[in-house]
């Protein structure tokens, strides 16, 4: 039975959102689009919403963040409603599991362990607890449990961190730089002599080592690339603005002119700093 009073109650809180999703998925009176969806079709939206939350935070768009967090919350509700229909688990199960996990992973807050620890010690303890959890799930191999659906650069760093815990890591950053030079040379060779598939393989190897360099330097590759994307967007926008000021578009310009305008945009940014 649809609880229309709850659905239209602005103060209905979490029960209201759960009721709305049940109604949307109702096989008789629900939304045809929502009824047709399954876990795999909704998963891309879940990833997209997580990135939109990160984007709002990056831009300090606090007015937008509230809505984006709601969109992300809806994804959890959507997946759990489908799971409930399939008799897999319920929303209450999800809430119970994450609550239990947070309590178990913070014995220095919710248990009898001392809070007098450094951040590094707390991180080490956190990893020990997670390792024990993986062991309980029969994830006995070093790289088990690193999610396949993570962005590739993020997953590369997580894989490397796991391997480093058991000693499979370069001892200093200089060796990582040497490996980058080696992989770059192999990429050039592949470009000149090998198949497109082999070129892609060598390019992937180079990206993987670049992610490792970021880890050794204490730089998050995802964040660094996101910042580089933002810088490129900003500077190319300055190039377009400069061309527009003289009545032209990038398509009506050439590389030499745009490169000069790019350099001018760089100088302007550094002067502003």
From TrEMBL:
It is an enzyme of class 3 (hydrolase). It comes from the Bacteria. GO terms for biological process: dATP catabolic process; dGTP catabolic process; dTTP catabolic process; dUTP catabolic process; response to stress; TTP catabolic process; UTP catabolic process. It catalyses: ATP + H2O = AMP + diphosphate + H(+). InterPro entries: MazG-like_dom, NTP-PPase_MazG-like_C, NTP-PPase_MazG-like_N, NTP_PyrPHydrolase_MazG, PRib-ATP_PPHydrolase-like. Its EC number is 3.6.1.8. Gene3D superfamilies: MazG-like. One of its GO terms (molecular function) is ATP diphosphatase activity. SUPFAM superfamilies: all-alpha NTP pyrophosphatases. Residues 37-110 form the NTP pyrophosphohydrolase MazG-like domain. Belongs to the nucleoside triphosphate pyrophosphohydrolase family. This is Nucleoside triphosphate pyrophosphohydrolase.
């Amino acid at each position: 039975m649809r609880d229309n009073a709850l659905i239209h109650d602005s103060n209905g809180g979490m029960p209201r959102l759960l009721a709305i999703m049940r109604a949307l998925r109702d096989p008789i009176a629900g939304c045809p689009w929502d009824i047709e969806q399954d876990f795999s079709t909704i998963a891309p939206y879940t990833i997209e919403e997580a990135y939109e939350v990160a984007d709002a935070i990056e831009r300090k768009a606090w007015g937008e963040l509230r809505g984006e967090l709601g969109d992300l919350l809806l994804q959890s509700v959507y997946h759990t409603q489908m799971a409930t229909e399939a008799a897999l688990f319920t929303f209450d199960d999800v809430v119970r599991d994450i609550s239990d996990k947070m309590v178990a992973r913070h014995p220095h807050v919710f248990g009898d362990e001392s809070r007098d620890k450094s951040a590094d010690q707390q991180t080490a303890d956190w990893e020990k607890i997670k390792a024990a959890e993986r062991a309980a799930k029969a994830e006995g191999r070093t790289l088990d449990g690193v999610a396949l659906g993570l962005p590739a650069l993020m997953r590369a760093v997580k894989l490397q961190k796991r391997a480093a815990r058991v000693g499979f890591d370069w001892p200093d950053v200089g060796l990582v730089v040497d490996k980058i030079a080696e992989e770059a040379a192999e990429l050039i060779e592949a470009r000149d002599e090998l198949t497109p598939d082999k070129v892609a393989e060598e390019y992937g190897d180079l990206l993987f080592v670049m992610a490792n360099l970021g880890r050794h330097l204490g730089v998050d590759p995802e964040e660094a690339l996101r910042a580089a994307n933002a810088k490129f967007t900003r500077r190319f926008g300055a190039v377009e603005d400069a061309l527009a000021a003289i009545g032209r578009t990038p398509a009506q310009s050439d590389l030499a002119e745009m490169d000069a305008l790019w350099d001018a945009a760089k100088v302007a940014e550094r002067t502003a700093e």
